[in-house]
Design a protein that fits this description.
It contains ten helices and twelve strands. The protein is an alpha+beta fold.
């Protein structure tokens, strides 16, 4: 990864507007900022933290890391492990949970690629779908499922595919008394109904934001095969550490993990789940830019 970025990111910047802007939109400044931090990761010239044993006076210097997520393989892995530990110990209620996935049709994905602020609509639509499905189709004050949302913007083949992974309590939590939340487990989740609720929620929000014209939303609502998908796993308990690690590692994965990435003879090879992708270094950076 370092070789690819170090030697070819300048070429990527030079040709971005000529080759990629029509498909990916304008060049976001956060891309260059993230790459600069990644290239300086672990470089002692960028600063170190010095540790000394108060007894034997032996000391060591540890270079600063970039602490970027979804790009630097080393820092991303460390952040993921620390985040999983914090979720398990500080956030999850001691009740059963499920992992959920919410995805949208290809027809809508470019809207979110060109305007990243719209990604919040996916979160709102999914949260409303889960809450309303447990409350008779309406939002009730103080009554919500516990939800942690994770945004993923790439597919297994590094294409733009914005979708949500969520950790959700397996039922409704009554927060009327914040000091003593009460949990009521859901006996049955109707995935088919929830898929249609998610479609309606998201399209309604997009019309309200004037992203979609009402007639376009009506057309999308008429599709028999809508392209919207909602999926839930079996329930698990927060104490099931391995299940939590496996699921969150998948939801928080890099576009191209190092164990599937190789760089030889000027070509980048990514062993995707269903196919092997071979591309130029510049094309790889364009696909991984997120």
């Amino acid at each position: 990864m370092f070789k690819i970025v170090y030697h070819h990111f300048g070429d990527f910047q030079e040709c971005y507007y000529r080759l990629y802007s029509e498909h990916y939109g304008f060049f976001r400044p956060i891309i260059a900022h993230t790459v600069e931090r990644f290239l300086a990761c672990g470089d002692p010239r960028e600063g170190v933290a010095r540790y000394e044993c108060p007894k034997c006076r032996q000391n060591m210097a540890v270079p600063f890391s970039c602490k970027t997520r979804q790009f630097c393989p080393s820092c991303h892995e460390k952040r993921t492990l620390l985040w999983i530990e914090a979720i398990q110990e500080e956030l999850l209620l001691p009740v059963s949970h499920r992992f959920w996935s919410f995805s949208i049709p290809k027809r809508l994905r470019p809207y979110f690629m060109w305007n990243r602020k719209l990604l919040s609509l996916l979160v709102t639509a999914a949260n409303n779908t889960l809450a309303k499905s447990l409350s008779g189709g309406r939002l009730t004050k103080g009554m919500r499922p516990g939800i942690i949302s994770l945004m993923q913007t790439h597919s297994g083949t590094m294409d733009w595919n914005c979708h949500l992974h969520l950790i959700v309590t397996d039922g409704l939590v009554d927060y009327t008394d914040p000091a003593l939340p009460k949990f009521k487990q859901c006996a049955f989740w109707d995935i088919g109904v929830m898929t249609e609720m998610f479609r309606l929620e998201l399209l309604t929000l997009m019309v309200k934001r004037k992203v979609l014209a009402p007639e376009v939303a009506d057309n999308l609502m008429s599709w028999r095969n809508s392209g919207f998908h909602v999926y839930a796993t079996e329930s698990f308990r927060p104490a099931d550490t391995q299940t939590l690690i496996n699921r969150l590692a998948y939801a928080y994965r890099l576009p191209a993990p190092l164990n599937r990435l190789s760089f030889n003879d000027g070509r980048v090879t990514v062993a995707a789940r269903k196919q092997t992708l071979t591309m130029t270094p510049v094309d790889f950076i364009a696909s991984a830019r997120g």
